[in-house]
Design a protein that fits this description.
238 residues; mainly alpha; Arc Repressor Mutant, subunit A; 0% strand; elongated; DNA-binding; transcription; SANT/Myb; Myb_dom; Myb_TF_plants
Length: 238
Amino acid sequence: MGTEEHQGRSGEFTMEDVPNQLPTTGIELAKLRKGSWTREEDILLKACVEKYGEGQWHRVPSRAGLRRCRKSCRLRWLNYVKPTIKRGVFEEDEVDLIIRLRGLLGNRWSLIAGRIPGRTANDIKNYWNSYLGKKVVSSDVIKVKLGASSQKPHLQRSRHLSADAGEGLSGGPPSVIKPRPRNMCKRPLLSQEINGRRDVSCCHVQMPSATDQRPADEGDPWLWLRHLLEEEGEYDQH
DNA sequence: AAGCGGCTCAACCGCTTTAGT
DNA sequence: AACTAAAGCGGTTGAGCCGCT
């Protein structure tokens, strides 16, 4: 990324930084920008989302005065501008969680991200592809050499798994749960904003409905994980 | 000090899914 | 039922960084 462009690593900006002049004409807005986001663009995007709430991304470019497509705006918000995003190195428990969830869910990065507060799907995906995948695969190789792997052929490959991203990791998941990750409802995100509370862990993914018939985990936020891992243990026994 | 190669991560692309009409 | 627009996702790319030689 460009060093001259806004990298945002310092993270902080205020509304005072918003420039007065905005590109508001159709001609200006028609020229879509690509590439790295500038500090000013981040400020405009943040101001827009704070004002109107998340959602209706197709309106964000015109509302914010940004020469970006709705996809770019959404992605930038979710991966960078959003205040709840956690940056820095992955902690040990986060890594452990990623490995387990990835083994269980496959490359459903958004679902995995939904279980790890503050982390984005892009972050996790990048982390996996650049580090964890190799690490897990290499440990898997060791397991195979030790004769620990007894993977069943019919369980080895999911259509959803990429060819090189460490499929069948850690002995390979027995099967990949493929819940419906979609949350197409237009209102919840806005209502969350109105309520003055954003929760990164629930904004864009739903609990796996198809396989998740268990009651809501009101008291213990990690109850779902315990259930998940218990089920994983059952699988291992078969 | 310079060159090189690998790594990181922000961003883009293409596709699928869903909602609305 | 068919079509369209919008949202969301995973895969991929590429610029910049960093460490090694």
